[in-house]
């Protein structure tokens, strides 16, 4: 139960940060035809997870609880793209290039497909 509370606390922070940063960037850029805010938080999340995981690999600085709070909680709610990117890089580091590119393709194709399917389903449900 303690782990759930730790992840939930981090998740709350990550979700609020995503909302504030994404919205602020989108308003600042003032171009509505591209999701600059989402791109910003996704890329920031990738940068942060790369930095934090490397810091931990080199210095073993995070306890399991801190890892849960930062990586699963905050970054998980801030963006799941960071986790996806890190997992893909790990596959490449392990020389499992086929799985890395399969991971990219599946996420991309099925992610877009799921969004499209969800939109279509709501059109049928909300008649």
What does this structure look like?
Helix 1 (about 1-30) packs across helix 2. The mean pLDDT is about 90. This protein starts with a helix and ends with a helix. The chain is mostly helical and about 130 residues long. It folds into two domains: about 1-95, no CATH class; about 95-125. It has helices spanning about 1-30, 35-60, 65-80, 80-95, 95-125.
Largest sheet: none
Unreliable residue runs = none
Give the N-terminus to C-terminus distance in angstroms. Answer: 42 Å
Counting DSSP H or I runs of 4 or more residues, the number of helices is 5
List the keywords.
mainly alpha; globular; 127 residues; 2 domains; 5 helices; 0% strand; single chain
Topology:
Layout: H1 2-29, H2 36-59, H3 64-78, H4 81-93, H5 97-125
Helix pairs in contact: 1-2, 1-3, 2-4, 4-5
Q: What is shown here, in short?
A:
With 127 residues, the protein is mainly α. It has helices at residues 2-29, 36-59, 64-78, 81-93, 97-125.
């Amino acid at each position: 139960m303690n782990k759930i509370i730790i992840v939930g606390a981090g998740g709350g922070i990550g979700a609020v940060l995503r909302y504030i940063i994404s919205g602020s960037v989108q308003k600042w850029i003032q171009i509505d035809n591209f999701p600059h805010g989402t791109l910003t938080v996704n890329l920031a999340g990738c940068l942060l997870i790369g930095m934090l995981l490397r810091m931990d690999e080199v210095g073993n600085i995070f306890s399991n609880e801190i890892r849960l709070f930062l990586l699963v909680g905050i970054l998980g709610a801030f963006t799941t793209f960071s986790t996806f990117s890190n997992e893909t890089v790990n596959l490449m580091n392990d020389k499992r290039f086929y799985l890395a590119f399969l991971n990219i393709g599946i996420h991309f194709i099925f992610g877009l497909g799921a969004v499209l399917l969800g939109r279509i389903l709501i059109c049928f449900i909300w008649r």
